[in-house]
Amino acid sequence: MRKSTLFFMSLAVQSVLLIGAFTHAAYQHGRDAFILGETAALVKRLELTDLCLFTEARYTRHPTQADLHSPFQDHPLSFEHFPSGSLLALPKGIGGR
Amino acid sequence: MGNWFERQRNIIDFTLSSLVRRKGKNLALLLVYALLVFLLASVMFFTHALRREASFVLQGAPEIVVQRMSAGRHELIPARYLGMIKGIRGVSGVRGRLWGYYFDPFSGANYTLMVPEAFSHGSGDVIIGQGIARTRLVGPGDVLSFQRYDGTPAILTVREVLPSASELVSSDLIVLSENDFRRFFGMAPGLYTDIVLTVRNAKEVATVAGKVQKLLPDTRPILKSEILRTYDTIFDWRSGIIVVILSSAVLAFIIFAWDKASGLSAEERKEIGILKAIGWETSDVLLMKFWEGAAVSLTAFLAGVLLAYVHVFFTPVMLFEPVLKGWSTLYPSFKLVPFINPYQVATLFFLTVVPYTVATIVPSWRAATIDPDSVMRS
Predict the structure, then answer these.
(1) Chain A residues with CB inside 8 Å of B233's CB?
(2) Lower Cβ count inside 10 Å, N or C end of chain B?
(3) Which site among B111, B166, B307 would you substitute to test the A interface, given the most A Cβ atoms closer than 10 Å to its Cβ?
(4) How far apart are CA B3 and CA B7, in angstroms?
Protein backbone atom coordinates (compact mmCIF):
# COMPACT_ATOMS: atom_id res chain seq x y z
CA MET A 1 0.00 0.00 0.00
CA ARG A 2 1.24 3.49 -0.84
CA LYS A 3 2.40 5.61 2.08
CA SER A 4 0.08 8.47 1.04
CA THR A 5 -2.89 6.08 1.22
CA LEU A 6 -1.83 5.10 4.74
CA PHE A 7 -1.45 8.77 5.69
CA PHE A 8 -4.90 9.73 4.39
CA MET A 9 -6.41 6.67 6.05
CA SER A 10 -4.87 7.55 9.41
CA LEU A 11 -6.10 11.17 9.06
CA ALA A 12 -9.58 9.88 8.15
CA VAL A 13 -9.64 7.54 11.19
CA GLN A 14 -8.54 10.35 13.52
CA SER A 15 -11.11 12.75 12.01
CA VAL A 16 -13.85 10.16 12.42
CA LEU A 17 -12.77 9.70 16.05
CA LEU A 18 -12.92 13.49 16.56
CA ILE A 19 -16.42 13.60 15.10
CA GLY A 20 -17.16 10.63 17.37
CA ALA A 21 -15.99 12.69 20.37
CA PHE A 22 -18.39 15.50 19.41
CA THR A 23 -21.21 12.99 18.93
CA HIS A 24 -20.40 11.34 22.26
CA ALA A 25 -20.39 14.75 23.98
CA ALA A 26 -23.79 15.62 22.51
CA TYR A 27 -25.24 12.20 23.36
CA GLN A 28 -23.80 12.19 26.89
CA HIS A 29 -25.03 15.74 27.46
CA GLY A 30 -28.56 14.67 26.57
CA ARG A 31 -28.26 11.58 28.78
CA ASP A 32 -26.79 13.49 31.75
CA ALA A 33 -29.26 16.38 31.52
CA PHE A 34 -31.52 14.56 33.95
CA ILE A 35 -28.67 14.02 36.45
CA LEU A 36 -27.62 17.67 36.14
CA GLY A 37 -31.25 18.66 36.71
CA GLU A 38 -31.34 16.48 39.85
CA THR A 39 -28.13 18.12 41.12
CA ALA A 40 -29.57 21.59 40.41
CA ALA A 41 -32.69 20.55 42.34
CA LEU A 42 -30.50 19.42 45.27
CA VAL A 43 -28.71 22.78 45.17
CA LYS A 44 -32.09 24.53 45.30
CA ARG A 45 -33.47 22.29 48.05
CA LEU A 46 -30.40 22.64 50.30
CA GLU A 47 -29.83 26.29 49.27
CA LEU A 48 -26.21 25.54 48.32
CA THR A 49 -24.02 28.30 46.92
CA ASP A 50 -20.76 26.62 45.94
CA LEU A 51 -19.12 23.64 44.29
CA CYS A 52 -17.38 21.19 46.60
CA LEU A 53 -14.04 21.33 44.81
CA PHE A 54 -11.51 22.36 47.45
CA THR A 55 -12.34 21.45 51.03
CA GLU A 56 -9.06 22.49 52.62
CA ALA A 57 -10.15 25.93 53.87
CA ARG A 58 -13.44 27.76 54.25
CA TYR A 59 -12.58 30.37 51.65
CA THR A 60 -11.67 27.70 49.09
CA ARG A 61 -14.70 25.55 49.96
CA HIS A 62 -17.11 28.49 49.64
CA PRO A 63 -15.31 31.13 47.56
CA THR A 64 -18.55 32.99 46.87
CA GLN A 65 -19.31 33.33 50.58
CA ALA A 66 -15.77 34.19 51.71
CA ASP A 67 -14.86 37.54 53.22
CA LEU A 68 -13.74 40.09 50.67
CA HIS A 69 -10.28 40.10 52.17
CA SER A 70 -10.09 36.35 52.81
CA PRO A 71 -6.59 35.97 51.34
CA PHE A 72 -5.37 38.17 54.19
CA GLN A 73 -7.73 36.92 56.86
CA ASP A 74 -5.07 35.69 59.28
CA HIS A 75 -3.10 38.90 59.14
CA PRO A 76 -3.21 41.94 56.82
CA LEU A 77 0.28 41.13 55.57
CA SER A 78 0.04 37.35 55.61
CA PHE A 79 0.85 35.33 52.52
CA GLU A 80 -1.57 32.88 51.03
CA HIS A 81 -1.41 29.63 52.99
CA PHE A 82 -3.16 26.99 50.90
CA PRO A 83 -2.08 25.90 47.40
CA SER A 84 -5.66 26.20 46.12
CA GLY A 85 -5.92 29.69 47.57
CA SER A 86 -2.95 30.80 45.52
CA LEU A 87 -4.78 29.70 42.38
CA LEU A 88 -8.06 31.44 43.25
CA ALA A 89 -8.82 34.80 41.74
CA LEU A 90 -9.29 37.83 43.97
CA PRO A 91 -12.87 38.18 45.19
CA LYS A 92 -15.09 40.58 43.23
CA GLY A 93 -14.74 44.20 44.21
CA ILE A 94 -11.00 44.10 44.87
CA GLY A 95 -8.59 45.70 42.45
CA GLY A 96 -11.29 47.89 40.92
CA ARG A 97 -13.11 45.02 39.16
CA MET B 1 -7.32 17.46 -11.65
CA GLY B 2 -6.30 13.80 -11.67
CA ASN B 3 -2.74 14.79 -12.56
CA TRP B 4 -2.62 17.38 -9.82
CA PHE B 5 -3.88 14.87 -7.27
CA GLU B 6 -1.41 12.20 -8.42
CA ARG B 7 1.44 14.73 -8.19
CA GLN B 8 0.47 15.58 -4.60
CA ARG B 9 0.30 11.88 -3.72
CA ASN B 10 3.74 11.26 -5.22
CA ILE B 11 5.20 14.12 -3.21
CA ILE B 12 3.46 12.83 -0.03
CA ASP B 13 4.84 9.33 -0.68
CA PHE B 14 8.33 10.76 -1.03
CA THR B 15 7.92 13.05 2.03
CA LEU B 16 6.73 10.20 4.25
CA SER B 17 9.58 7.97 3.11
CA SER B 18 11.97 10.80 3.92
CA LEU B 19 10.37 11.22 7.39
CA VAL B 20 10.61 7.46 8.05
CA ARG B 21 14.32 7.50 7.13
CA ARG B 22 14.90 9.84 10.10
CA LYS B 23 12.31 8.20 12.29
CA GLY B 24 14.01 8.77 15.66
CA LYS B 25 14.15 12.55 15.28
CA ASN B 26 10.69 12.86 13.71
CA LEU B 27 9.05 10.55 16.21
CA ALA B 28 10.46 12.67 19.04
CA LEU B 29 9.01 15.79 17.39
CA LEU B 30 5.64 14.10 16.92
CA LEU B 31 5.52 12.95 20.55
CA VAL B 32 6.48 16.35 21.98
CA TYR B 33 3.97 18.05 19.68
CA ALA B 34 1.14 15.64 20.59
CA LEU B 35 1.97 15.99 24.30
CA LEU B 36 1.76 19.77 24.07
CA VAL B 37 -1.61 19.63 22.30
CA PHE B 38 -2.78 17.06 24.85
CA LEU B 39 -1.87 19.30 27.80
CA LEU B 40 -3.46 22.43 26.35
CA ALA B 41 -6.58 20.54 25.22
CA SER B 42 -6.93 18.87 28.64
CA VAL B 43 -6.86 22.24 30.41
CA MET B 44 -9.33 23.71 27.96
CA PHE B 45 -11.78 20.79 28.03
CA PHE B 46 -11.60 20.42 31.80
CA THR B 47 -12.13 24.05 32.75
CA HIS B 48 -14.81 24.58 30.13
CA ALA B 49 -16.77 21.49 31.24
CA LEU B 50 -16.44 22.48 34.90
CA ARG B 51 -17.55 26.05 34.16
CA ARG B 52 -20.59 24.87 32.18
CA GLU B 53 -21.53 22.38 34.87
CA ALA B 54 -21.14 25.03 37.60
CA SER B 55 -23.30 27.52 35.72
CA PHE B 56 -25.96 24.85 35.22
CA VAL B 57 -26.19 23.39 38.72
CA LEU B 58 -25.76 26.72 40.52
CA GLN B 59 -28.86 28.09 38.79
CA GLY B 60 -30.61 26.63 41.85
CA ALA B 61 -28.54 28.76 44.27
CA PRO B 62 -30.36 31.31 46.45
CA GLU B 63 -31.21 34.59 44.69
CA ILE B 64 -29.70 36.68 47.48
CA VAL B 65 -27.65 35.62 50.52
CA VAL B 66 -27.31 38.24 53.24
CA GLN B 67 -24.28 37.94 55.53
CA ARG B 68 -23.62 40.04 58.57
CA MET B 69 -20.14 41.47 58.78
CA SER B 70 -18.37 42.33 62.01
CA ALA B 71 -14.78 43.60 62.21
CA GLY B 72 -14.40 42.72 58.55
CA ARG B 73 -15.45 39.10 59.04
CA HIS B 74 -18.56 37.05 58.43
CA GLU B 75 -20.57 37.03 61.68
CA LEU B 76 -23.73 35.25 62.86
CA ILE B 77 -26.88 37.18 61.96
CA PRO B 78 -29.65 37.82 64.54
CA ALA B 79 -33.19 36.58 63.84
CA ARG B 80 -34.61 40.13 64.14
CA TYR B 81 -32.94 40.96 60.80
CA LEU B 82 -35.36 38.48 59.18
CA GLY B 83 -38.37 40.65 60.07
CA MET B 84 -36.61 43.82 58.92
CA ILE B 85 -35.70 42.33 55.55
CA LYS B 86 -39.18 40.85 55.12
CA GLY B 87 -40.58 44.41 55.27
CA ILE B 88 -38.67 45.46 52.15
CA ARG B 89 -40.98 45.83 49.15
CA GLY B 90 -40.33 43.15 46.54
CA VAL B 91 -39.10 40.47 48.97
CA SER B 92 -41.29 37.38 48.71
CA GLY B 93 -39.54 35.02 51.14
CA VAL B 94 -36.91 35.20 53.89
CA ARG B 95 -35.26 32.33 55.73
CA GLY B 96 -32.42 32.06 58.19
CA ARG B 97 -29.81 29.57 57.01
CA LEU B 98 -27.76 27.44 59.37
CA TRP B 99 -24.50 26.00 58.16
CA GLY B 100 -20.93 25.69 59.36
CA TYR B 101 -17.70 23.73 59.19
CA TYR B 102 -16.41 20.84 61.23
CA PHE B 103 -12.83 19.65 61.17
CA ASP B 104 -12.77 15.91 61.67
CA PRO B 105 -9.50 14.98 63.40
CA PHE B 106 -10.21 11.30 62.65
CA SER B 107 -9.90 11.76 58.90
CA GLY B 108 -8.18 15.15 58.81
CA ALA B 109 -10.95 16.49 56.56
CA ASN B 110 -13.26 19.49 56.76
CA TYR B 111 -17.00 18.85 56.52
CA THR B 112 -19.81 21.28 55.79
CA LEU B 113 -22.77 20.91 58.16
CA MET B 114 -26.04 22.21 56.80
CA VAL B 115 -29.63 22.49 57.98
CA PRO B 116 -32.20 22.27 55.17
CA GLU B 117 -35.55 24.05 55.21
CA ALA B 118 -37.32 20.71 55.66
CA PHE B 119 -35.36 17.81 57.13
CA SER B 120 -37.01 14.48 56.39
CA HIS B 121 -35.45 12.61 59.34
CA GLY B 122 -35.45 13.06 63.07
CA SER B 123 -33.07 14.33 65.69
CA GLY B 124 -29.82 12.34 65.80
CA ASP B 125 -30.09 11.44 62.10
CA VAL B 126 -27.95 12.74 59.27
CA ILE B 127 -27.73 12.61 55.49
CA ILE B 128 -24.13 12.59 54.28
CA GLY B 129 -22.28 13.17 51.03
CA GLN B 130 -20.39 10.45 49.17
CA GLY B 131 -17.02 11.93 50.13
CA ILE B 132 -17.72 11.48 53.84
CA ALA B 133 -19.12 7.99 53.29
CA ARG B 134 -15.91 7.12 51.46
CA THR B 135 -13.56 8.76 53.97
CA ARG B 136 -15.26 7.38 57.08
CA LEU B 137 -16.30 4.06 55.47
CA VAL B 138 -19.94 4.44 56.54
CA GLY B 139 -23.31 3.86 54.88
CA PRO B 140 -27.00 4.05 55.76
CA GLY B 141 -27.63 2.67 59.25
CA ASP B 142 -24.03 3.28 60.45
CA VAL B 143 -23.13 5.66 63.21
CA LEU B 144 -20.84 8.69 63.00
CA SER B 145 -19.22 10.06 66.12
CA PHE B 146 -18.15 13.69 66.32
CA GLN B 147 -17.24 16.08 69.08
CA ARG B 148 -19.53 19.00 69.96
CA TYR B 149 -18.25 22.50 70.76
CA ASP B 150 -18.17 21.64 74.48
CA GLY B 151 -16.27 18.38 74.01
CA THR B 152 -19.28 16.09 74.50
CA PRO B 153 -19.69 13.35 71.88
CA ALA B 154 -22.36 13.67 69.19
CA ILE B 155 -23.53 10.27 67.97
CA LEU B 156 -25.32 10.65 64.63
CA THR B 157 -26.95 7.89 62.61
CA VAL B 158 -26.50 7.96 58.84
CA ARG B 159 -29.94 7.67 57.24
CA GLU B 160 -29.07 8.44 53.64
CA VAL B 161 -26.03 8.98 51.44
CA LEU B 162 -26.51 11.66 48.80
CA PRO B 163 -26.25 10.36 45.20
CA SER B 164 -22.74 10.11 43.77
CA ALA B 165 -23.86 12.05 40.68
CA SER B 166 -24.21 15.14 42.90
CA GLU B 167 -20.72 14.86 44.44
CA LEU B 168 -19.54 18.04 42.79
CA VAL B 169 -21.79 20.00 45.15
CA SER B 170 -22.40 17.60 48.04
CA SER B 171 -19.30 15.47 48.66
CA ASP B 172 -18.49 16.95 52.10
CA LEU B 173 -22.05 17.69 53.24
CA ILE B 174 -23.63 16.57 56.49
CA VAL B 175 -27.32 17.46 56.45
CA LEU B 176 -28.89 17.45 59.91
CA SER B 177 -31.77 18.87 61.95
CA GLU B 178 -31.77 22.41 63.34
CA ASN B 179 -31.83 21.09 66.89
CA ASP B 180 -28.76 18.90 66.34
CA PHE B 181 -26.94 21.75 64.58
CA ARG B 182 -27.54 24.22 67.42
CA ARG B 183 -26.48 21.66 70.03
CA PHE B 184 -23.42 20.77 67.97
CA PHE B 185 -22.06 24.33 67.77
CA GLY B 186 -23.74 25.77 70.87
CA MET B 187 -25.56 28.33 68.75
CA ALA B 188 -28.32 30.29 70.51
CA PRO B 189 -31.85 30.00 68.99
CA GLY B 190 -32.00 33.65 67.89
CA LEU B 191 -28.97 33.40 65.60
CA TYR B 192 -28.42 32.18 62.04
CA THR B 193 -25.34 31.79 59.84
CA ASP B 194 -26.86 33.99 57.14
CA ILE B 195 -30.18 34.83 55.52
CA VAL B 196 -31.45 33.80 52.10
CA LEU B 197 -34.21 35.72 50.39
CA THR B 198 -36.32 35.34 47.32
CA VAL B 199 -37.45 38.29 45.28
CA ARG B 200 -40.83 38.50 43.55
CA ASN B 201 -39.52 40.10 40.36
CA ALA B 202 -36.14 38.88 39.08
CA LYS B 203 -35.43 42.34 37.62
CA GLU B 204 -35.57 43.84 41.12
CA VAL B 205 -32.87 41.64 42.69
CA ALA B 206 -30.16 44.32 42.55
CA THR B 207 -32.58 46.99 43.87
CA VAL B 208 -33.63 44.76 46.77
CA ALA B 209 -29.96 44.01 47.57
CA GLY B 210 -29.30 47.77 47.64
CA LYS B 211 -32.23 48.32 49.97
CA VAL B 212 -30.99 45.56 52.31
CA GLN B 213 -27.57 47.18 52.55
CA LYS B 214 -29.11 50.59 53.14
CA LEU B 215 -31.42 49.27 55.85
CA LEU B 216 -28.75 47.09 57.48
CA PRO B 217 -25.34 48.67 56.80
CA ASP B 218 -23.47 45.89 58.62
CA THR B 219 -24.64 43.31 56.08
CA ARG B 220 -23.28 42.15 52.75
CA PRO B 221 -25.75 40.84 50.17
CA ILE B 222 -24.39 38.27 47.70
CA LEU B 223 -26.43 37.89 44.50
CA LYS B 224 -26.81 34.67 42.53
CA SER B 225 -25.36 36.45 39.49
CA GLU B 226 -22.23 37.18 41.57
CA ILE B 227 -22.00 33.52 42.61
CA LEU B 228 -22.14 32.45 38.96
CA ARG B 229 -19.63 35.14 37.95
CA THR B 230 -17.23 34.06 40.71
CA TYR B 231 -17.08 30.55 39.26
CA ASP B 232 -16.55 31.92 35.79
CA THR B 233 -13.64 33.99 37.12
CA ILE B 234 -12.16 31.09 39.11
CA PHE B 235 -12.02 28.78 36.13
CA ASP B 236 -10.79 31.52 33.82
CA TRP B 237 -8.10 32.32 36.37
CA ARG B 238 -7.12 28.70 36.91
CA SER B 239 -7.04 27.78 33.26
CA GLY B 240 -5.27 31.08 32.57
CA ILE B 241 -2.56 30.25 35.11
CA ILE B 242 -2.07 26.76 33.70
CA VAL B 243 -1.98 28.11 30.14
CA VAL B 244 0.61 30.71 31.22
CA ILE B 245 2.70 27.91 32.72
CA LEU B 246 2.21 25.85 29.58
CA SER B 247 3.05 28.81 27.36
CA SER B 248 6.69 28.29 28.32
CA ALA B 249 6.29 24.76 26.99
CA VAL B 250 4.75 26.20 23.78
CA LEU B 251 7.71 28.56 23.48
CA ALA B 252 10.17 25.71 24.04
CA PHE B 253 8.34 23.71 21.40
CA ILE B 254 8.48 26.59 18.90
CA ILE B 255 12.24 26.86 19.47
CA PHE B 256 12.52 23.08 19.07
CA ALA B 257 10.49 23.18 15.83
CA TRP B 258 12.51 26.12 14.51
CA ASP B 259 15.76 24.40 15.38
CA LYS B 260 14.62 21.15 13.83
CA ALA B 261 13.49 22.88 10.63
CA SER B 262 16.47 25.23 10.29
CA GLY B 263 19.22 22.93 11.42
CA LEU B 264 19.07 20.71 8.36
CA SER B 265 21.34 17.73 8.72
CA ALA B 266 24.03 17.11 6.09
CA GLU B 267 21.95 14.20 4.85
CA GLU B 268 18.83 16.39 4.42
CA ARG B 269 20.79 19.11 2.62
CA LYS B 270 22.28 16.50 0.32
CA GLU B 271 18.83 15.06 -0.32
CA ILE B 272 17.41 18.46 -1.30
CA GLY B 273 20.48 19.18 -3.41
CA ILE B 274 20.05 15.93 -5.35
CA LEU B 275 16.30 16.57 -5.80
CA LYS B 276 17.00 20.00 -7.26
CA ALA B 277 19.80 18.60 -9.43
CA ILE B 278 17.44 16.01 -10.94
CA GLY B 279 14.93 18.67 -11.82
CA TRP B 280 12.79 19.48 -8.77
CA GLU B 281 11.67 23.12 -8.69
CA THR B 282 11.88 25.30 -5.58
CA SER B 283 8.06 25.10 -5.46
CA ASP B 284 8.26 21.28 -5.39
CA VAL B 285 10.66 21.35 -2.42
CA LEU B 286 8.37 23.86 -0.70
CA LEU B 287 5.43 21.56 -1.38
CA MET B 288 7.38 18.68 0.12
CA LYS B 289 8.13 20.79 3.21
CA PHE B 290 4.44 21.78 3.39
CA TRP B 291 3.35 18.13 3.41
CA GLU B 292 6.04 17.30 5.95
CA GLY B 293 4.64 19.99 8.29
CA ALA B 294 1.05 19.00 7.57
CA ALA B 295 1.72 15.32 8.29
CA VAL B 296 3.42 16.07 11.62
CA SER B 297 0.97 18.85 12.64
CA LEU B 298 -2.30 17.12 11.78
CA THR B 299 -1.27 13.77 13.24
CA ALA B 300 -0.01 15.34 16.48
CA PHE B 301 -2.97 17.72 16.75
CA LEU B 302 -5.67 15.10 16.24
CA ALA B 303 -3.91 12.56 18.49
CA GLY B 304 -3.43 15.20 21.24
CA VAL B 305 -7.06 16.36 21.12
CA LEU B 306 -8.43 12.80 21.17
CA LEU B 307 -6.17 11.76 24.06
CA ALA B 308 -7.20 14.89 26.00
CA TYR B 309 -10.88 14.06 25.47
CA VAL B 310 -10.34 10.55 26.85
CA HIS B 311 -8.23 11.93 29.72
CA VAL B 312 -10.80 14.51 30.84
CA PHE B 313 -14.07 12.68 30.26
CA PHE B 314 -13.19 8.99 30.70
CA THR B 315 -10.55 9.00 33.46
CA PRO B 316 -10.48 10.81 36.84
CA VAL B 317 -8.35 13.63 35.26
CA MET B 318 -5.19 12.12 36.74
CA LEU B 319 -2.92 14.88 35.53
CA PHE B 320 -4.72 17.75 37.26
CA GLU B 321 -5.79 15.87 40.35
CA PRO B 322 -2.82 16.93 42.53
CA VAL B 323 -3.28 20.58 41.47
CA LEU B 324 -7.00 20.56 42.17
CA LYS B 325 -6.74 18.64 45.42
CA GLY B 326 -4.28 21.04 47.00
CA TRP B 327 -4.09 20.00 50.63
CA SER B 328 -7.65 18.68 50.79
CA THR B 329 -8.13 15.31 52.43
CA LEU B 330 -11.65 14.96 51.17
CA TYR B 331 -11.94 15.42 47.45
CA PRO B 332 -15.04 14.80 45.36
CA SER B 333 -14.88 12.00 42.85
CA PHE B 334 -16.91 13.35 39.95
CA LYS B 335 -17.36 12.59 36.29
CA LEU B 336 -17.75 15.66 34.15
CA VAL B 337 -20.45 15.94 31.53
CA PRO B 338 -18.55 16.46 28.26
CA PHE B 339 -19.06 19.98 26.92
CA ILE B 340 -16.92 20.57 23.86
CA ASN B 341 -17.52 22.77 20.85
CA PRO B 342 -15.83 23.46 17.50
CA TYR B 343 -14.72 26.88 18.79
CA GLN B 344 -12.49 25.20 21.42
CA VAL B 345 -10.94 22.88 18.83
CA ALA B 346 -10.37 25.84 16.48
CA THR B 347 -8.72 27.82 19.32
CA LEU B 348 -6.44 24.88 20.06
CA PHE B 349 -5.58 24.60 16.40
CA PHE B 350 -4.51 28.24 16.31
CA LEU B 351 -2.61 27.90 19.59
CA THR B 352 -0.57 24.91 18.41
CA VAL B 353 -0.54 24.40 14.65
CA VAL B 354 -0.15 28.07 13.66
CA PRO B 355 2.97 28.68 15.84
CA TYR B 356 4.52 25.49 14.45
CA THR B 357 3.75 26.50 10.86
CA VAL B 358 5.11 30.02 11.40
CA ALA B 359 8.27 28.64 13.02
CA THR B 360 8.96 26.33 10.08
CA ILE B 361 8.12 28.66 7.14
CA VAL B 362 11.45 30.51 6.95
CA PRO B 363 13.66 27.42 7.44
CA SER B 364 11.57 25.62 4.80
CA TRP B 365 12.10 28.48 2.34
CA ARG B 366 15.84 28.41 3.04
CA ALA B 367 15.91 24.66 2.46
CA ALA B 368 13.99 25.03 -0.77
CA THR B 369 16.39 27.63 -2.16
CA ILE B 370 19.56 25.62 -1.51
CA ASP B 371 22.03 25.73 -4.36
CA PRO B 372 22.39 22.09 -5.50
CA ASP B 373 25.89 22.55 -6.80
CA SER B 374 27.38 23.91 -3.58
CA VAL B 375 25.57 21.30 -1.46
CA MET B 376 26.75 18.37 -3.52
CA ARG B 377 30.31 19.69 -3.63
CA SER B 378 30.38 20.11 0.17
Answers:
(1) 89, 92
(2) N
(3) B166
(4) 6
Q: Which of B192, B215, B241 is the last residue of a domain?
A: B192
Domain count of the fold of chain B? 2
Of A7, A18, A51, the CB nearest to B12: A7
CA distance B262 to B289: 12
**CATH code: domain of residue B159:** 2.40.40.20
- The answer, yes or no, to whether residue A68 has pLDDT greater than 80, is no
Burial A49-68 (b: 16+ CB within 10 A, else e): bbbbbbbbbbbbbbbbbbbe
Quote the DSSP letter at residue B58.
Answer: G
Comparing alpha-carbon positions, the chain A residue that sits nearest to B95 is A47
B178-212 b/e (C-beta count within 10 Å ≥ 16 → b)? bebbebbbebeeebbbbbbbebeeeeebeebbebb
Whose CA is closest to B370, among B295, B274, B287, B297? B274
Predicted local distance difference test score (pLDDT) of residue A97 = 42
Q: Considering only CA atoms, which of B179, B234, B190, B201 is closest in space to residue B58?
A: B234
Q: Residue B95: what residue type?
A: R
CB spacing of A14 vs B306 below 8 angstroms: yes
Residues B84, B169 contacting (CB under 8 angstroms):
no
Classify B90 as helix, strand or coil.
coil
pLDDT of residue B195: 95
| B18: in domain | yes
CA distance B299 to A18: 12
Residue B335, phi then psi, degrees to nearest 5: -115, 120
Query: In chain B, which residues have pLDDT < 70?
Result: 1, 237-243, 260-265, 324-327, 378
CA distance A14 to chain B (A): 6
Ranges of each domain in chain A: 1-48, 50-97
Q: Which residues of A touch B220 (CB under 8 A)?
A: 68
- The answer on B283 and B148 residing in a single domain is no
Q: Which domain holds residue B293?
A: 2-58+230-377
Point out the residue among B9, B172, B196 whose CB comes nearest to the CB of A52.
B172
